[in-house]
Amino acid sequence: YVLPNKDVLVVESKREFSRRWGWRARRRRPRPPSANRITLFRDADQDGRPEVRKVFLMGLKMPFGLLLHGNFLYVANTDGLLRFPYKTGQTRITTAGEKLLDLPAGGHYTRNIIANGDGSKLYIAVGSSSNVDKDGDDAKDPRRAAILEINPDGSGMRVFANGLRNPVGMSWEPATKSLWTVVNERDRLGDQLVPDFLTRVREGSFYGWPYSYFGQNEDPRKKGERPDLVAKAVVPDFALGSHVAPLGLAFYTGTTFPEQYRGGAFIGMHGSWNRSQLVGYKVVFVPFKSGKPRGEIKDFLTGFIADKQAVKVYGRPVDVTVTPDGSLLVTDDRGGKVWQVSYTAAPTFSRNP
To answer: What is the reported pTM?
Structure first.
């Protein structure tokens, strides 16, 4: 997250597996707990090499989303939304945060947050607790698999849109000012199902999970349970491919990249974990025109896969953020790096007559 003074905040967290996720936890080697902190980087001379690196905030609980709104920094923990007083230029927060809103914890643990144009409403992305809600627990909690809308003080919570298995990245499309998100779809229906997607978030709409996918395609594991919801499921705007795991989303509002990138969407793909061959593990670009995707998806930043056959990778992209100078920051949680992609036009030469 880039602050107005160009300081960069990097969230450090990971999912801590609960008993509910035990089948996946047993397949993994023991690993250290979540760092639960935010680190600040300051690059005063803007040469791409930060001179300052400091722990900015600690003691969080699987944090993910950040938002500066007025004089407060909002932090979306897995179990709730906090806000902290913030002054421009400060390099550490030591005051206790104020909890504004409880959120359902765990499962797909990331909780992202974004404000609308005039700052009157905040939107929080909350994923499901499971793959297809086999036990019906998520059906009892409307906050799950949804994007929520609240007032900046945490009041007035309502479900803005639901049926979104795991929405993570959110961004405002610059031409229409509409909210868009990328969504991780369900697993265990094969390599080619179900497509993860990019879509405009239509107020009051239902996007199918867990009863159907990509519109009215009924999930065979939920067959006949809710035909009424299947019938109303909205078809997402753009399929990204199955199991690519899109996490980051940023529309390009800078001016330094070539014209072809202006107004389009950059997406960080974390990559597949349960597919026979790796997919994702890259940053892609979707061109937009008049507020809608136009044209094919294009690879933008690749090279994260070391060996497909041996299932070895160098890194896994997570978030993407446009900086004030028009470059793109990409977080990589496997490599433990933040990459900066900038553009310098090739020099032109005039030939003497």
So the answer is: 0.94
